[in-house]
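lol so apparently i was supposed to do this last week
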Amino acid sequence: MWFRVGWKCRVWTGQFPAPSGSSDPPGASSGVRMGRRRRLAGARLDSGPMSCSAPHFSAAVLADSRLRAVVIGAGPAGLMAAETLLAGGAAVQVYDAMPSVGRKFLLAGKGGLNLTHAEPPASFRARYGERSAEVGRWLDRLDAQGLRDWAAELGIQTFVGSSGKVFPAEMKAAPLLRAWLHRLRMQGAVFHMRQRWTGALQPTSGAGWQLEFSGPDGVRTVQADRVLLALGGASWPQLGSDGAWQAWLDEAGVPVAPLVSANCGFEVRWSAFLRERHAGQPLKAVRLRHRDGQGQLFERTGEAVVSDYGLEGGLIYAASAPLRRDIAARGPAQVELDLLPQRSLEEVTAALARGRGSRSWTNHLREQTGLAGVKAALLREGLDAAAWPALQTQPAALARRIKALPLCLEAPRPVAEAISSAGGVRLEGLDASLQLRSHPGVACAGEMLDWEAPTGGYLLTACFASGRVAAEGLLNREVRSAGLDSGAAGPICPPNRLP
Ligand SMILES: Cc1cc2nc3c(=O)[nH]c(=O)nc-3n(C[C@H](O)[C@H](O)[C@H](O)COP(=O)(O)OP(=O)(O)OC[C@H]3O[C@@H](n4cnc5c(N)ncnc54)[C@H](O)[C@@H]3O)c2cc1C
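anyway here it is w/ flavin-adenine dinucleotide bound
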């Protein structure tokens, strides 16, 4: 008979267990069945419930009987899950398709790693929109302050920027990732890079799962008691998260919402003049207004950038969820841009009505309103050769255009270019501990789950928190008799690899 040590009581207490002494815990080797050793069958389990503080078994026996957990995806969610599983006493093997870990995390740190946000918990949770209740439960396990404390334990101090965003003191992701990987290795995590999960996941007779990875040395099969998928979304696929898992999970009956662009730019049909002269220029302090088909108003002041394809930047990313939905429902979205949000319509009208004298119209506009460069050029967009000079003589009409410049956003940019993706494994397909209802013992975490949030540190926070929740769920999973765990679940197979 195979049995498991009472690991259920070994949930994370915040203390990390000492390294087992083995740098290669049982659980993953090329094509080898990684069963627990039969000599464990001699250990006594009939003397009442196990106590966490007084283990019944020697360290060697415990090491052999550890839960074999495979984490696929070494981004923030997968690494947090690995850490939690290790802390719970599991033997953890981490697999990733890329040659090195955390590539997107490192990229996120290039322009300043926005780890989390310091706003009050209620407004923080509201950032997750329709999913704020579910994500809020993950944040109960690891919230913004918890994340800052966690970083501090790694020796990474954080600070709150003027907008409330939280950054590491050094701004970059690399020092944090370096310290974290070192700690994970010391705790016994084993990393397998350039190993791409093929999508194959089949229940084994021993209540676990058999997985298949393809790497430089060919295909290997791996057995695990618990599997954690943290495969990311579909943005920036060159960094590893290519969303290929969507088809695999969908075929296996896991409900998946298609991955679409979030925090993305939008296409606008600029004139050749605007593209050639002004692409890449920032629009500082503009106010975006958009009313969707349901009458919901988005209105916010921020910064955008005119790009050769359209508009991008923080303000546009913030509006991207309602804009994307509206475009999907009704086609191109009409928005208004207030180019002078700090001045009223009346003030702008009065300023433009002042005598121009011998000054050029461009100088008059700049002196009276401060508008120049790309903002001034935008006023002319879409107007024909006759309309533009006519508008220059009508202060009230021109002021209205400055305060509510109409723009047509045709489509979101492709998900591969977006900062993040929306869609993914529907939360209805998961239990509260993020295990797949259809595949018990297999959990999902991070951006591959169906939630979205604006930039501002909310993405990483939810990835970390969901990684922790999913791993805790796997650790706490009630162990039933062999065969019952996964017997009800069908295999997940990539196309052409049906068993
Ligand atoms: C340019 C940019 C800047 C960003 N800046 C910020 C920021 O400042 N703050 C913030 O909160 N968020 C930011 N984000 C978003 C944040 O980086 C992501 O939300 C986060 O990395 C997602 O974490 P994850 O662990 O779910 O997935 P990922 O980080 O995408 O990791 C998934 C991993 O799974 C691996 N994988 C995928 N498929 C397979 C397979 N079949 N087999 C094996 N391995 C596989 C991938 O190689 C990858 O390593 C930024 C994103 C981008 C693109």
